Amino acid sequence: MSSSSIHHRKGSIVMNGDMESSDRESRMLKSLDVEEHAIEQEQQSYTEAEKRQLDKLYRKLDLRIIPALWCLYFLTSFGSNCYGLTLTMNAETKHSLIDSLQLTTHDTSTASALYYVGYIIFDVPMNLIMTKVSPQSWLARIVISVGLVYTCYSAVGSAGALIALRFISGTVGAGTWPGMSYYVSLWYPNDRSTRRIGYYFTAAQISAAVAGLVSAGFQKIDGNRGYYGWQWMYMVYGVITITVGISLLWWLPDRPFKVHEESNNKLMQLYSKYFTPRHPLNDDDRELHRRDLEHRYKLLQWTWKDVVNILTDLRLWPLTIMYFGVVGTGFGLAVFGTTIIKANDPSLTSIQVSLLYAPIWLFDLAGILIITPFADKFKRLRALTFSFACVIIIVGMIVTTYAKGPWNRYAGLLIAGFGLGPTVPICMSWSAEIFQPRYGDVGTAVSAAIVSGLGNLGSVTATYALYRGWPADAKRLYQYSNMMLVLMLGVSIVASGICHLIRNKVRQQ
């Protein structure tokens, strides 16, 4: 696109002297539809051979990037799934985390809530840092930090220590989800991003399923060498996570194009030499990739005024409310899914509960694989696709609350899991689609961090105020807690409709 004023020099992208005037022109677009139309025109200018080459190069990038992001998200998600399971592991022998530390319901709800408070406070700062540093190094740092902290869980000995560790876990993990969304925006255009976000988002679901299966195995070695089953799980998980985090330094590629002058600092040059992997594309593919993404690589410099402008953009808040409802429901089921299953059928053993927990997230995976491709193909119907998925979750929660018999109620959890899958990827790709054309690099980073950070208040609500945080609801088989999640989902549906109505009517000049 000529308006981007970006020129390719020696394999990197740099701004020419007309960048400021070009920025002013881009900011004067009267509608995001103008931007989308320009991008579509650029794509239509490709020959059939170039289109096939584009598809081929993105598949090549998929093979390099998506598995790395998948492993990253799998391991960072595994810790939170682990925590929910350790609350009930070996409960029959009084060796669960709750019994070992003599935790009250207030302790568990406070610990869960503070985990998300850490995310909320630090999501935006962490993502802003990522715009200024090597993104692959920053993502690797997150994984290594998470592994170190969760290894410490195996030595926790009191409720206070657990609560502190939960807050630290949220702090070191902050920026994971918005950081990955930002990273994907560096390598993929928006019309290809939702599906990719969905691909690695499946890691959270597989992680939840595997955690349930793995916890069943660790319960078998409870007491081995004087450690509880939950302690063994944290130790093994921590070591594996640290190892994979270090490997990401050579596995994940850095930015596709250089956007900053190289540092003269010898230490930084040495780090770049040994810890920055080779570009995954050849020269011809890199040039075609540059053409396809040059609309993305503008407005790369930002000030705090830009951040304030994003925070005061009305379109940010419907997206945050959408995320609030679906993430609150998702983490409510992730942390307390075993609690719901056990309440519906008290005769189940803790191992059986862990095994029944896994299929919920396999259904979630199926929802991602089936529905997210439609969200990319029909971008203008994102609100409808999102609302349809929310309705599926609502149906599932109603079934699991009011159906007769434990197995019918369990089927409701599977239905809810299927609907949960595509909701979060839609929220993240939609925020990038709305905020990147006007605000550029910082728009993608800050919108993703705010949507996921403040949206995690839904997780706080589900984990602190509902289920174990609402002891009186246990006698009702968590009926009221389930219906509060349904109410949150209804608000998310309304918010998606509002976002659809105002997305091209706010700050278009």
Automatic annotation (TrEMBL):
Its membrane topology: Multi-pass membrane protein
Record InterPro entries: MFS, MFS_dom, MFS_trans_sf
Composition-biased stretches (Basic residues): 1-11
Keyword Repeat among UniProt keywords: no
A Pfam family this chain is assigned to: MFS_1
Regions crossing the membrane: 61-80, 113-131, 138-156, 162-185, 197-218, 230-252, 321-341, 353-371, 383-403, 409-430, 442-467, 479-502
Domain Major facilitator superfamily (MFS) profile: 72-507
Region of interest (Disordered), ranges: 1-23
Protein name according to UniProt: Major facilitator superfamily (MFS) profile domain-containing protein
Naturally occurring in which organism (per UniProt): Lodderomyces beijingensis
